Protein backbone atom coordinates (compact mmCIF):
# COMPACT_ATOMS: atom_id res chain seq x y z
CA UNK A 1 0.00 0.00 0.00
CA UNK A 2 2.82 2.40 0.84
CA UNK A 3 4.28 1.96 -2.63
CA UNK A 4 0.90 2.70 -4.26
CA UNK A 5 0.47 5.86 -2.22
CA UNK A 6 4.05 6.91 -2.97
CA UNK A 7 3.53 6.38 -6.73
CA UNK A 8 0.27 8.32 -6.72
CA UNK A 9 1.78 11.20 -4.78
CA UNK A 10 4.74 11.47 -7.13
CA UNK A 11 2.64 11.90 -10.29
CA UNK A 12 3.85 14.78 -12.46
CA UNK A 13 6.93 15.07 -10.29
CA UNK A 14 4.97 16.45 -7.34
CA UNK A 15 5.10 15.22 -3.80
CA UNK A 16 2.22 15.91 -1.44
CA UNK A 17 3.27 17.55 1.79
CA UNK A 18 1.04 17.20 4.84
CA UNK A 19 0.44 20.81 6.01
CA UNK A 20 1.04 20.03 9.69
CA UNK A 21 4.53 18.66 9.14
CA UNK A 22 5.98 20.43 6.13
CA UNK A 23 7.73 17.12 5.35
CA UNK A 24 7.13 14.86 2.33
CA UNK A 25 4.53 12.14 2.85
CA UNK A 26 5.98 9.23 4.82
CA UNK A 27 3.45 6.93 6.51
CA UNK A 28 1.55 9.89 7.91
CA UNK A 29 -2.24 10.28 7.81
CA UNK A 30 -3.65 11.18 4.42
CA UNK A 31 -3.95 14.90 5.12
CA UNK A 32 -2.52 17.25 2.52
CA UNK A 33 -3.43 20.07 0.19
CA UNK A 34 -5.60 18.65 -2.57
CA UNK A 35 -4.52 21.34 -5.01
CA UNK A 36 -1.04 19.79 -4.96
CA UNK A 37 -2.40 16.53 -6.35
CA UNK A 38 -3.54 16.18 -9.93
CA UNK A 39 -5.10 12.75 -10.10
CA UNK A 40 -8.72 13.49 -9.23
CA UNK A 41 -10.72 10.47 -8.06
CA UNK A 42 -7.66 8.47 -7.09
CA UNK A 43 -7.27 10.68 -4.03
CA UNK A 44 -10.58 9.47 -2.64
CA UNK A 45 -9.67 5.87 -3.47
CA UNK A 46 -6.42 6.14 -1.51
CA UNK A 47 -8.20 7.68 1.47
CA UNK A 48 -10.92 5.07 1.27
CA UNK A 49 -8.42 2.20 1.33
CA UNK A 50 -6.81 3.67 4.41
CA UNK A 51 -10.15 4.04 6.25
CA UNK A 52 -11.79 0.62 5.74
CA UNK A 53 -10.49 -2.84 5.08
CA UNK A 54 -11.70 -6.04 3.48
CA UNK A 55 -13.15 -8.95 5.44
CA UNK A 56 -10.49 -11.56 6.10
CA UNK A 57 -12.77 -14.48 5.27
CA UNK A 58 -13.30 -16.62 2.20
CA UNK A 59 -16.57 -16.53 0.27
CA UNK A 60 -17.39 -19.99 1.70
CA UNK A 61 -16.90 -18.79 5.28
CA UNK A 62 -19.06 -15.73 4.65
CA UNK A 63 -21.79 -17.86 3.04
CA UNK A 64 -21.78 -20.25 6.02
CA UNK A 65 -22.15 -17.39 8.51
CA UNK A 66 -25.01 -15.80 6.55
CA UNK A 67 -26.82 -19.15 6.17
CA UNK A 68 -26.50 -19.80 9.93
CA UNK A 69 -27.95 -16.36 10.70
CA UNK A 70 -24.74 -15.10 12.30
CA UNK A 71 -24.26 -12.44 9.63
CA UNK A 72 -26.14 -10.38 7.06
CA UNK A 73 -25.05 -9.75 3.48
CA UNK A 74 -25.79 -6.39 1.89
CA UNK A 75 -25.44 -5.88 -1.86
CA UNK A 76 -24.26 -2.31 -2.58
CA UNK A 77 -24.65 -2.59 -6.35
CA UNK A 78 -27.22 -0.30 -7.94
CA UNK A 79 -30.80 -1.53 -8.47
CA UNK A 80 -30.47 -2.38 -12.21
CA UNK A 81 -27.54 -4.68 -11.33
CA UNK A 82 -29.52 -6.18 -8.43
CA UNK A 83 -32.46 -6.89 -10.74
CA UNK A 84 -30.19 -8.65 -13.24
CA UNK A 85 -29.26 -11.16 -10.53
CA UNK A 86 -28.43 -11.30 -6.86
CA UNK A 87 -27.75 -13.68 -4.00
CA UNK A 88 -31.05 -14.81 -2.51
CA UNK A 89 -30.01 -14.20 1.12
CA UNK A 90 -28.63 -10.72 0.40
CA UNK A 91 -30.47 -7.44 0.93
CA UNK A 92 -30.11 -4.52 -1.45
CA UNK A 93 -28.52 -1.30 -0.17
CA UNK A 94 -27.16 0.61 -3.20
CA UNK A 95 -24.06 2.71 -2.64
CA UNK A 96 -25.95 5.76 -3.96
CA UNK A 97 -28.53 5.26 -1.19
CA UNK A 98 -25.81 5.14 1.45
CA UNK A 99 -24.32 8.36 0.09
CA UNK A 100 -27.70 10.13 -0.03
CA UNK A 101 -28.93 8.86 3.36
CA UNK A 102 -25.96 9.54 5.60
CA UNK A 103 -27.19 9.25 9.18
CA UNK A 104 -30.72 8.17 8.15
CA UNK A 105 -30.30 4.46 7.45
CA UNK A 106 -32.64 2.05 9.32
CA UNK A 107 -30.07 0.48 11.65
CA UNK A 108 -32.16 -2.29 13.21
CA UNK A 109 -33.49 -3.63 9.91
CA UNK A 110 -30.31 -3.59 7.82
CA UNK A 111 -27.73 -3.74 10.59
CA UNK A 112 -29.10 -6.06 13.30
CA UNK A 113 -27.34 -5.91 16.64
CA UNK A 114 -24.97 -8.76 17.35
CA UNK A 115 -24.59 -9.81 13.70
CA UNK A 116 -21.67 -9.33 11.37
CA UNK A 117 -22.49 -7.14 8.38
CA UNK A 118 -20.83 -8.00 5.07
CA UNK A 119 -21.01 -5.71 2.05
CA UNK A 120 -20.46 -6.93 -1.50
CA UNK A 121 -20.54 -5.53 -5.01
CA UNK A 122 -19.32 -6.80 -8.38
CA UNK A 123 -15.56 -6.44 -7.93
CA UNK A 124 -14.93 -5.18 -4.40
CA UNK A 125 -14.39 -1.44 -4.90
CA UNK A 126 -17.86 -0.05 -4.16
CA UNK A 127 -18.30 -2.22 -1.07
CA UNK A 128 -15.06 -0.82 0.35
CA UNK A 129 -16.30 2.71 -0.23
CA UNK A 130 -19.65 1.78 1.34
CA UNK A 131 -17.86 0.33 4.39
CA UNK A 132 -15.97 3.60 4.81
CA UNK A 133 -19.19 5.65 4.58
CA UNK A 134 -20.96 3.40 7.08
CA UNK A 135 -17.97 3.53 9.42
CA UNK A 136 -18.37 7.34 9.50
CA UNK A 137 -21.94 6.73 10.73
CA UNK A 138 -20.74 4.41 13.48
CA UNK A 139 -21.79 1.23 11.67
CA UNK A 140 -19.22 -1.57 11.48
CA UNK A 141 -19.40 -3.41 8.15
CA UNK A 142 -16.84 -5.58 6.39
CA UNK A 143 -16.30 -5.29 2.65
CA UNK A 144 -16.06 -8.56 0.72
CA UNK A 145 -13.11 -8.56 -1.67
CA UNK A 146 -14.24 -11.63 -3.63
CA UNK A 147 -15.93 -10.93 -6.97
CA UNK A 148 -19.71 -11.31 -7.13
CA UNK A 149 -19.50 -14.51 -9.17
CA UNK A 150 -17.23 -16.20 -6.59
CA UNK A 151 -19.56 -15.21 -3.77
CA UNK A 152 -22.56 -16.45 -5.74
CA UNK A 153 -20.88 -19.86 -6.18
CA UNK A 154 -20.15 -20.03 -2.45
CA UNK A 155 -23.88 -19.59 -1.78
CA UNK A 156 -24.63 -22.39 -4.24
CA UNK A 157 -26.34 -20.18 -6.78
Can you describe what's shown?
By secondary structure, the chain is α/β, with parallel strands linked by helices. The protein has 2 domains: 2-51, no CATH class; 59-154, Rhodanese-like domain (Oxidized Rhodanese, domain 1), CATH 3.40.250. It contains 8 helices and 4 strands, in the order αααβαβααβαβα. The protein has helices at 2-9, 42-51, 59-67, 79-84, 95-100, 107-110, 125-136, 148-154, and strands at 71-75, 90-92, 116-120, 142-143. A 4-stranded parallel beta sheet has the order 2-1-3-4, with helices on both faces. Helix 4 (79-84) links the parallel strand 1 (71-75) and strand 2 (90-92). The longest helix has 12 residues, at 125-136. Residues 10-51 have low confidence and may be disordered.
SSE inventory with pairings:
Blueprint: H1 2-9, H2 42-51, H3 59-67, E1 71-75, H4 79-84, E2 90-92, H5 95-100, H6 107-110, E3 116-120, H7 125-136, E4 142-143, H8 148-154
Parallel strand pairs: 1-2, 1-3, 3-4
Helix pairs in contact: 2-7, 3-8
Annotated CATH topology of the largest domain: Oxidized Rhodanese, domain 1
Radius of gyration: 18 Å
Structural class comes to alpha/beta
The beta-strand count equals 4
Largest sheet: 4 strands, parallel
**CATH class assignment of the largest domain:** Alpha Beta
Number of helices: 8
Task: Show unreliable segments.
Answer: 10-51
Strand/helix succession:
HHHEHEHHEHEH
Instruction: Classify the beta-strand content into a percent band.
Output: 5-15%
Amino acid sequence: MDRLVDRLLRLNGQIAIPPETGMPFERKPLVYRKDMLRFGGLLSLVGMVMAADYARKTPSQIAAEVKKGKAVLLDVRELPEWEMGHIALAKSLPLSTIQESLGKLPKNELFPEGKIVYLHCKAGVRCLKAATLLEKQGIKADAVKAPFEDLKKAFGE
